[in-house]
Design brief:
3 helices, globular, alpha+beta, 8 strands, Homing Intron 3 (I-Ppo) Encoded Endonuclease, Chain A, two-stranded antiparallel ribbon, binds zinc ion, 106 residues, two-stranded antiparallel sheet
Length: 106
Amino acid sequence: MRTMKGLSEAHALRLLHASYDINEAGCWNWRWLDSWGYGKVAWQLADSRRWWMAHRASYELLVGPIPTGLSLDHLCRNRSCINPQHLEPVTIAENNRRAMKARVAA
Ligand SMILES: [Zn+2]
């Protein structure tokens, strides 16, 4: 069986699907956010507690591995969203370029 950060995939999926609310835009809003507004997930393991970015966990569980060196861009510009259909793996440079454009447009 595949494991994710030490959890079985089935257990990780159960945790994931119990932790967000869907809004009218189709965003899956994660309930626990860090001070930057990003969703954070804590896998409580027997020996330790590990933090993981919720949108990266969601993408890896529901779509597949994120290519090395790429970050996930929120196409909906909603940092707390973990809907894999709203996420696209891009280079950090591309992600920054898009964020800049969004700021100018706002
Ligand atoms: Zn979204």
